[in-house]
Fold each of these.
Amino acid sequence: MPDLTMAPPPEGLLRERYGDHAPAAPLRLNETIRTLLGHRSVRRYLDEPLAPGTLETLVAAAQSASTSSNLQVWTVVAVEEPDRKARLAALVGDQKHVVQAPLFLVWLADLARAERLSAQAGGGREGIDYVESFLVAVVDATLAAQSAVAALESLGLGSVYIGGIRNHPQAVAAELGLPPRVMPLFGLCVGKPDPERPTSVKPRLPQEAVLHRETYDPAQADEAVARYDVTLSGFQRAQGMAEVAWSKIVADRLGVLKGLNGRERLRAALESLGFELR
Ligand SMILES: Cc1cc2nc3c(=O)[nH]c(=O)nc-3n(C[C@H](O)[C@H](O)[C@H](O)COP(=O)(O)O)c2cc1C
């Protein structure tokens, strides 16, 4: 794949991603990086099945992600049956795209497989109930899912993550037949984007907010957030959306318990799914 380091700046791509606040340094662009920078969530799909082999390709990409100590403590359940998608859509807050997408993937932190094989080998389970083991599974599953997203976008497909899967984790676990110590983390709708309903790239924070050199610098981050509020307001205006400062969105979401949309009960849900989290 050619390295296009010296190519002229991709004005469109960077402008969409950063508004007026693109990094000053020239980016090193190639096809892979263009695909990553062009990401946008897609919530409208064509009513068409995915090409044969698509699911297996996405899972191969997911499995190619790094995994802590090669433990591979994640699983994904692929849901294509319309009735099951409809029941899951109801559980995630009536999100229509879950029904409309030909494929709905549920990504799982899975300590059950490791626990089973240890038991089969006559081993113990002392390490299973710790926060560390749960985090390993969450990190592994997340890296795998995002590799699948990069792969599907490179194929011209679109997707949207569904955090609503954590609204009712026990009901999702029952629907999918999950054993104890398997936790649904997020869903992913996958389909061919409907060209009649195109989606825009949503600008991100200036790099100064997320990239600190050598040591952490809150003042630098806060200054960048103020610039981002302006950029995102412009994006909201262009999209015909209500203009709300991003910093207010974050404050509203995390500043009051209501912002968690019922997911403040997650600790109890995790316990009932067999995660002690010591
Ligand atoms: C873990 C996770 C959960 C999400 N859950 C939902 C969801 O339940 N419904 C939805 O419409 N979008 C969901 N999203 C999509 C985000 O809203 C979206 O990624 C964000 O607004 C940035 O937009 P972009 O992906 O188009 O760049 C989720 C994203 C992530 C990473």
Note: Residues 39-41, 43, 95, 160-164, 186, 202 surround flavin mononucleotide (CB under 6 Å).
Amino acid sequence: MTKLSVLMILAGFSLAVGGCDSDPMSEVGFRLPDGDAKNGREAFLYMQCNQCHTISGVELPVVPLADPPYVELGGKVSQVKTYGQLVTAIINPSHKLADGYAEELVSEDGESNMYVYNAHMTVQELIDLVAYLQPLYEVTPPQYYYRVYPY
Ligand code: HEC
């Protein structure tokens, strides 16, 4: 076999394995511009996200008459909360419900109780909100405790 045909076989193989994404709905190549965390905090407050959310370690004004089961954002998580997960949680909240809450507390018939803001929120507000929220998550790997036996 010539060097060239080996190369061509390798190239074909890598395309078959992962290089070529033929699903037209694939998110490959999807990337929003970076947002501004300070503006994100402002958006969070004027959109009254704090009507239903607390943020771990952040003091937020209480929205009058709000009495939901608060869903906490930020804080310790065992895996990184990605940009993609946060964007999805905001504009497609029923896609995956937050972990750690009884389903009937945060959703009805599989639909998240969160408002859908898509007809009102600008893309700028969305990316600013994500820029604000993302760094408030702290990844802490699960702790394993080993029993240490005396010699
Ligand atoms: C009417 C109540 C309500 C309001 C207002 C609300 N949310 Fe939510 N939100 C929820 C509930 C309930 C959940 C949990 C169910 C789910 O994952 O959709 C949630 C989940 C989330 C999550 C995912 C949390 C996780 O741990 O996976 C994010 C992020 C979020 N909301 C951001 C926002 C932002 C930003 C706003 C304001 C623009 C907002 N929410 C306004 C009720 C609300």
Note: The longest strand covers residues 53-55.
Amino acid sequence: MKYINDTIAAIATPLGTGGVAVIRISGEKVFDIISEIFSLSLKNKKLPDFEANKIYYGWIKYNNKPVDQVLLLSFKGPKSFTGEDIIEIHCHGGINITKNILQLCLKAGARSATRGEFSKRAFLNGKMGLTEAEAILDIIHSRTDKFSQVSAYNLSGKLSSCIKEIRSGVMNILSEVVAALDFPEEVEEPEYTYLEECVINIIERINDILKSSNNSNLMRQGVKIAIAGKPNVGKSSLFNTLLNMERAIVTDIPGTTRDIIQESLDVDGIPVTLIDTAGIRDLESKTQSDQIESIGINIAKDHIQSADIVLFLYDLTKGMKKEDIAILNKIKGKPVIKVGSKVDLVNNLNDSVLPEMPDCLISTKTGNGIKLVKQKIKQFALSFNDIDNSEYFTNIRHQECLNNAKESLLLAVTSCQNYVPQDFISIDLKTALLSLDEITGEVVTEEILDNIFSNFCIGK
Ligand SMILES: Nc1nc2c(ncn2[C@@H]2O[C@H](COP(=O)(O)OP(=O)(O)OP(=O)(O)O)[C@@H](O)[C@H]2O)c(=O)[nH]1
Ligand SMILES: [Mg+2]
């Protein structure tokens, strides 16, 4: 199936200075367009015969003047990424030169591709399923090794083949029901208990996939963790230690951090946005410096409130004071990891750990307890689930479709239990099939496609 018959072009690499940049053209007129702007030789207009899967070395020219020396990769549909004819121009990686070559392609008859249009064409031409297209997006945006790995499994078709198995399970039951409805003389109606058992088996398979939904969402979206506490308790020191770099300023002057500082961190496969905040205290005087700090404290409070997890720090050399308790009271109800800091300076812990033992005792000077902080983050983030046991990785769209399919199947189960006429059961089974087909893209609306592909970059 051809979706649209115009030819699209876009820069497929990030716009910047680099070794190589790639301009991709796809569609019916690819070879006409490239013939206008490319030649094997600088001196004459010599063209290659553009065979499939070949690389050509030559020149992009404009008005017979050289623009850049390039490599052309030639693919012929349907054996290409989009299923259409494709040329990739590999030029030198300069912003200006890349833009100029794209402009020449457009002048020669191509249209600027929209976001994800190459991938959308690949889907519409049957080159890949929707879950695979979504996996590409996940690979591109993955912030951790673990997530890249599971997205690559989805790209290889792990999720879609599991959905297809479930689908054929539903199809088999439906065929038995429909056969008896259509040919009541020849085919016996399946037993209700047998139908119920088959449908329950399928629901269990769906539950297996849905089991890892929370973890999937977590891996995709990550968690926001704010480090909170009084001034000088060692928040920025912990921030730097967790990131393994000197990112935030550390001094022994209380009130060093003013603005929030934010960085990404991979905690055992969980993408974390870690935020260092200004130390919280009541400021009495009204100097200009205090006014700035006070703005910082308000920003800190906002970020602490919106964080998924708070790393609350207090200084063990001082013990937990009423100011610390006041901060803790403000974050009651949030997931809080309580951390006692500067344990290297404490000889006798007795009073320091009152009124209750913190979750971790740390020293950023010796590195003590840092591993435990990471373990606690993982534990809190996974809500005590084990991410490594998640077999399938799904996004919200998949989860919605699976839940819809499950709902229809549950209706079928109830109908079986109540001996409802089997043509009603067949309707529930058909509805479940439609929901499953939506996941892989067998049944899909233009709106869903736009939603998915608009998240891609231009050129992908
Ligand atoms: N001995 C020791 N000193 C520490 C430790 N962590 C932090 N410090 C010292 O404590 C002081 C304050 O550290 P910071 O990390 O700037 O504290 P902060 O909580 O970010 O302070 P504000 O930004 O002012 O809120 C610095 O002198 C650090 O070197 C630790 O584990 N052991
Ligand atoms: Mg600080």
Note: The radius of gyration is 30 Å.
Amino acid sequence: MKFQYLGTAAAEGIPALFCDCEICREAARRGGKELRMRSGALVNENLLIDLSPDLFAARLQFNLDLSKVRNAIITHAHSDHFDREMMGFFTPTCAHIAKTGDLFHLWGSAYTASAWKEYTSAIQMKEPVLEQYVVFHELKPFETVEIEGVRVTALKARHSCPESLIYVLEQGDARLFYGNDTGPLADETWEWLAQNKEKPFTTVSLDSTMGHPENHYYGHMSLKENIETKERMLAESMADANTRFICHHFSHNALCLHKETVDFMKPHGFDVAYDGLSFNA
Ligand SMILES: [Zn+2]
Ligand SMILES: [Zn+2]
Ligand SMILES: [Zn+2]
């Protein structure tokens, strides 16, 4: 299963749009991996995780062909993960691939579905254009569906947006845990992981928004909490020595520049995500 991070920042990006803090200034000065767009990922060239407002920028930067994408799994309804207006570009005037009967499928929680419905009912068109091309499928926590040949299981996140989901993606030998936005994992999620560990994860991507080891917030993880999550996954045989652990979803408020985060997390066996990082999961 191919996997690519299209963006690796929290909502404000790095450097943040109107910010003048030391981290943003230093990130802008260094460039490269220090520059982070809002979070999202592409699986196998045809399955998106989240609709980031920076998807168009990612398409340009990584020369992506998104014309085959007909499915997006949405973690939650925060605007940096679910830019609802983006779906307007999957209509025949904006995408010449879209024809009547050709549907784009969104997948997410009932709350995310209600945010989608609220948006489509608020836009006043002569006829309901979006509904002809985009269909929303509600996922319940711990439900598994198959999308584009990938087994997708929704797990419960702990986050400030109602009914936020994180995901397990499985295909062939690959078993990936995509864990943001979430604080230290919910008990029910640990229970599901304990009951479904026939195969250790090949890749685990964790929320690192709180950065600095001592920071704590219920709806995001710190680097210390990333390390604790890894230790518990290893202790409970959900992961093994071959599992690749990756820190992901960063904020300028956490004082984490890429290079320093790599130096800090390397001894703990973590890679640090950057925009465009692509690998076989
Ligand atoms: Zn986020
Ligand atoms: Zn800043
Ligand atoms: Zn969020």
Note: The chain has one domain: 2-280.
